[in-house]
Amino acid sequence: MAVHLTRLNRSSILYAGMFIFLALLTACAPSPASPTAGATKTGVTTPTTSITPPTPTPTLTAPKPAPTSTPKTAPARYTSQLVLQGGTRPDDLAFDQQGRLLFSSEFDKISGRVNANGSFTVLLNDSLGPEGLVALPDGSIIFAEQDANRIVSLAPGSTTPKVLRQLPGTPSSANCKHGVDGIALDPTTNTLIIPDSPTGNVYRMSLDGKTFTLLASGIVRPVGAAVDSQGNIYIADECGGAVWRVTPAGKTTRIGGFGMPDDVIPDGYGNLLVIDLQPSIHALIRLNLTTGKRETLASQGYIEPQGLVMDTHGNIYVADDYANIIVKYSPA
Known about the structure:
Blueprint: H1 10-24, E1 40-41, E2 78-85, E3 93-95, E4 101-105, E5 110-114, E6 120-125, E7 130-135, E8 141-145, E9 150-154, E10 162-166, E11 184-186, E12 191-196, E13 201-205, E14 212-216, E15 222-227, E16 233-237, E17 242-246, E18 252-255, E19 261-266, E20 271-276, E21 283-288, E22 294-298, E23 305-310, E24 316-320, E25 325-331
Antiparallel strand pairs: 1-6, 2-25, 3-4, 4-5, 5-6, 7-8, 8-9, 9-10, 11-12, 12-13, 13-14, 15-16, 16-17, 17-18, 19-20, 20-21, 21-22, 23-24, 24-25
């Protein structure tokens, strides 16, 4: 969770962001104390907003396999819908094997699952600050604990995480030295990509945590991670204003020109989707890796955008922890 720079002037950022957001959506509900694991938060509605004319409130069901014939170009327009508003402060995002949206909340110290009616169910209370998460086919969830700078696993139905690996870095409250943030699954090797934020190193780790290999170093603060279908790894460098690409052969390339990129995913069309949380930007950006063209897909309504994920239908989900929302962007 990137709070070390954006909270230097939190009051002004919050006021400005909320003013914009009130003009577009509805006021966000305040964060509660950490709920009990397994409890369902009620009273959280799912009002609809849009970039283009409003569409019905969505339901979160398991995504179907992508169609055989997919468009050759990325969508030009999206409509937006709230799938979660208020009740918690969502950070990183993932889908479980049933296609249900999972989130972590480093601020509220919980991990949860979004329900179809706009409420959420708490899966885990974790005082060590849950961040990036990956869901495995057996129903277990591997996630990062920022305050402890370690990777843990939560078995189905369990309320006690198992430690898989203590990371080398030592987290602190200094700028750009907070603990581990986002992690990613590399489906081409069935391993995990682990950015060790305090050290600036990126590692490949086996699912059981026993194998741990250095992939890249010298990144200022690696936070978000993603892998494309060819095995190229993308790392968001929040304090370095860049995204890094690491090829399967180990070649690294720095893509600069960003403010504070926090999360990144490939969209399947040769583009990268990047969340930039620098206060003057606060946007979801699409970068064409071939041409270098950059487009702002969304920015209004954000206060501190963080998590980013895309489903098999091309719907994009963005979590904003300070606005207390998760927004779904559907191709128009």
